[in-house]
Design a protein that fits this description.
The structure holds two protein chains of two kinds. Chain A has a six-stranded mixed β-sheet with strand order 5-6-7-3-8-9. The longest helix of chain A is centred in the middle third of the chain and has 16 residues. Chain A is built from ten helices and 13 strands. Chain A folds into two domains: 219 residues, P-loop containing nucleotide triphosphate hydrolases (Rossmann fold, 3-Layer(aba) Sandwich), CATH 3.40.50; 58 residues, Alpha-Beta Plaits, CATH 3.30.70. By secondary structure, chain A is an alpha/beta fold. By secondary structure, chain B is an all-alpha fold. In chain B, 77% of the residues lie in helices and 0% in strands. The radius of gyration of chain B is 21 Å and the shape is globular. The N terminus of chain B is likely disordered. Classes of the chains: A alpha/beta, B mainly alpha. At the A-B interface, helix 1 and helix 2 of A face helix 1 and helix 5 of B. Chain A: Keywords: ATP-binding, Nucleotide-binding, Transport.
């Protein structure tokens, strides 16, 4: 069905699987601007899926399409096999924290949550639970207009958690959070996913979710350029080689089908290949090798290459 | 995998949940009473100084029992503007404060629209009740010398006011949902009710020398005036006071007070306003349901 290098562990569901999000062939045009162009990916329960892409690559539009806030021009964005708006009790299935989510400045956090609890159909007692969960109990009776960015972000998260959803969709949740807040959120998302639930979290910064996400969906200009395990993106481990004739070695390696070669400043070569193969090739080509270091996959470099931000 | 969430709570239908949420939201900010205060003051002033009103309509003695009814109707017609404003603010606050995303995610668009319309109708009806009570008391104090209208007619005018203000609350929500911009929607509402509809009525009636005096029956174009929303509310409200004031000339009195030609009966005018409100909600349903919320 989908090409998934990780053979993801979660329950391999049908299209309507519990906790599953599926975007297929999604296209969204705003006037002349094509924000999303034929994007397809899936989110499975039991893992944190990071949704990465540069600013303006279509992440927010995709999340809004998944949540029924934006109507797809073509394709579909489904929650457990149906459009979001067809869910009978959406607040109990999906919790969302989106960027353009605000609060009435004169309404206190508690009253905001009470109204949301009524809309979802959960007990008012749940309000105190989520307030405590995000550490806003102290500020509960203050108008949200006076909240800092971080407090507003925590209130948004509390709102998302009111219905005890099995899917969390978060758009750039790190914005406004202090380092402790980010660490807390990271831990929270990992435990949420470990409980068999789904998390889709977007960011334009790899570093922000590299430690949290098990799976990554990377998009660029509204199309998917990578989806799979985080380890898959960091690329095959390779070697850095210092040799007498980099050009000759590169040509010889190309002859053996190794094409992922970067010329490093200072004359070195970064080669995504096994050290044995590189050594043998150098010997056969008669290129003297002065040094070879094995290197782990470089997530950041691969991300930048995929999203066109390198150089 | 752990067991799914245990918390289920009482299962209510989407519209019921939306209604509870909207009621909580309406009561948790000051808008509703911030608009009630001026509405009540206006009702008090108009009825307390009913003489101003009788001077305005001219030549009617304060001894006629319809004066208090008419000033009450006038106050309720103005109250309906506040009811409409409240509806506009209720609907546009979601966009102004960017809460529409959360609201739509949790309650859905159509249930939210209906719940807001219902909330605005209840608040509008409340404004009318307060205005009627304050207005009647003010009227009895200020115009007490004259003959008093029957309790039945007072109640009938108040009930009409409740219906008109409730419908204007609904219209306000529809307008606010359509335009989304708070300031824009307020300007459109006030501009239309206070100026545009009057100009429109004058234009529609321009082909007509005063219908009653000339003995000519007003043409189809002039008749349209009664079917404009603000005029329809006025016609509904002035119907009964006009009968008490004008007797067999009551139609002419309604025409004079509401600025219309050949008005339908009061209940007919109320139905016209109901149709406007329903049409507004239908438009908001379609436009609001398709709009991308970004």
């Amino acid at each position: 069905m989908t090409r998934e290098p990780d053979g993801s562990a979660g329950p391999v569901g049908s299209a309507g699987g519990r906790g599953r999000l599926e975007v297929s062939g999604l296209v969204k045009r705003f006037g002349a601007v094509e924000a999303v162009r034929g994007l397809s990916f899936t989110v499975e329960p039991g893992a944190v899926t990071g949704f990465l892409g540069p600013n303006g690559s279509g992440k927010t539009t995709t999340l809004r399409a998944l949540l029924g806030l934006v109507a797809p021009t073509a394709g579909s964005a489904l929650v457990e096999g149906v459009p979001y708006v067809a869910l009978p009790a959406p607040g109990r299935v999906v919790g969302a924290v989106l960027e353009a989510q605000g609060f009435h400045p004169a309404r206190t956090a508690r009253r905001h949550l009470r109204a949301c609890a009524a809309a979802i159909g959960v007990d008012a007692a749940r309000v105190d639970e989520v307030l405590a969960l995000v550490a806003l109990t102290e500020a509960a009776d203050r108008p949200a207009g006076g909240f800092s960015l971080g407090m507003a972000q925590r209130l948004a998260l509390a709102t998302a958690l009111l219905g005890d959803p099995r899917i969390l969709v978060l758009d750039e949740p790190g914005n406004g959070l202090d380092p402790q807040g980010i660490a807390w959120l990271r831990d929270f998302l990992r435990r949420f996913a470990a409980a068999g639930k789904s998390v889709l979290v977007s960011s334009h910064q790899l570093a922000e979710i590299a430690q949290t996400a098990d799976r990554l969906v990377v998009i660029r200009d509204g199309t998917c350029v990578y989806q799979g395990a985080r380890e898959g993106l960091s690329g095959r481990p390779g070697v850095t080689v210092l040799c007498a004739d980099p050009a000759a070695l590169a040509a010889a390696l190309a002859g053996r089908g190794v094409l992922e070669i970067d010329h490093l400043p200072g004359g070195g070569l970064a080669i995504a290949a096994d050290p044995v193969l590189v050594g043998d090739t150098a010997l056969a080509a008669g290129v003297a090798v002065y040094g070879m270091t094995e290197r782990q996959g470089d997530l950041e470099a691969m991300f930048l290459r995929l999203t066109g931000g390198a150089g | 995998m752990t067991a799914p969430a245990p918390r289920t709570g009482p299962v209510r239908a989407g519209p019921v949940r939306a209604l509870r949420a909207e009621a909580l939201k309406t009561l948790s900010v000051k808008t509703w009473w911030a608009l009630l205060i001026p509405a009540a003051l206006v009702a008090l002033m108009i009825n307390l100084f009913g003489g101003l009103f009788s001077a305005a309509i001219g030549g009617v003695s304060r001894d006629v029992p319809g004066v208090l009814l008419a000033s009450l109707a006038y106050a309720l017609a103005l109250t309906s503007v506040f009811a409409g404003l409240h509806g506009v603010v209720l609907a546009t606050a979601e966009f102004r404060h960017r809460t529409a995303t959360t609201t739509y995610l949790l309650a859905g668009r159509a249930p939210t629209l209906l719940a807001k319309a219902a909330s605005a109708a209840v608040v509008g009806a409340g404004y009318a009740l307060v205005a009627a009570v304050v207005g009647a008391v003010g009227g009895l104090l200020g115009q007490g010398g004259g003959r008093l209208p029957s309790v039945g007619s007072l109640l009938a005018v108040a009930a009409t006011g409740v219906a008109v203000c409730a419908l204007w609350g609904v219209l306000g929500v529809a307008l606010g949902t359509l335009l989304t911009n708070q300031v824009g929607a307020i300007v459109v509402l006030l501009g239309y009710v206070l100026a545009v509809e009057n100009l429109l009525s004058m234009a529609l009636r321009s082909g007509l020398d005063d219908g009653v005096d000339s003995g000519r029956s007003p043409g189809a174009v002039a008749r349209l005036t009664s079917y404009l929303p603000a005029n329809a509310g006025d016609v509904a409200l002035y119907d009964l006071p006009a009968r008490e004031l004008g007797g067999r000339y009551s139609t002419a009195v309604v025409e004079g007070l509401a600025g219309v030609s050949a008005p339908p009966p009061g209940w007919g005018a109320l139905l016209v306003l109901l149709v406007w409100a329903a049409a507004g909600v239908a438009l908001a349903w379609v436009a609001g349901g398709r709009r991308d919320v970004t």
